[in-house]
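Journal club prep, shared notes

We agreed each person brings one worked example of a sequence with its structure written out as tokens. Mine is Protein LemA. I'm keeping it raw so we can talk through how to read the token line rather than staring at a rendered picture. Sequence first:
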Amino acid sequence: MSAGIIIGIILLLLIIILIVAFVMMYNNLVKARNFVENAWAQIDVQLKRRSDLIPNLVETVKGYAGHEKQLLENVTVARSAVMKATTPHEKAEASNMLSGTLKSLFAVAENYPQLKANENFRDLQNQLTETENKIAYTRQFYNDTVTKYNNTIQTIPTNIVAKIGGFEKKELFEAGEEEKVVPKVSFS
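Then the structure, token by token:
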């Protein structure tokens, strides 16, 4: 064989290897993006579950604490904001607002022993607490998945394939400023 044929075969093999590597990296990026979208869908499922529970909770509280009208309206407005939000940032902000109003609602419920003793209220409170725990877990899973995805699209050599394929950095689901404040505890 002549040197020209050997060089041609080597170049052809290199091109094939590069094409295969490109296809494998692209497919891995698609899988990573799909994992991010799935993780986001899991957050959405839990936020929807929480939103579905809230009307029942509000109706239950109305029966016992009807004069807490402003608080009940705040819960309803916060729920509506979660349902209307579309981006991770908007969902995070609205979800944090809803969590805050629910905390206020449960704090007010402490002033109504009959409400606290109501089986329906306790059941809804337990379901919401369980859902809040699931939301926290799915947020963490989402953020882990997004971090892995973002690392993949920003590191060499997959960053080249990501740029060519139009893969973009995803937002993390972050806690709101009100959730970062350390609560004051007083036993006086």
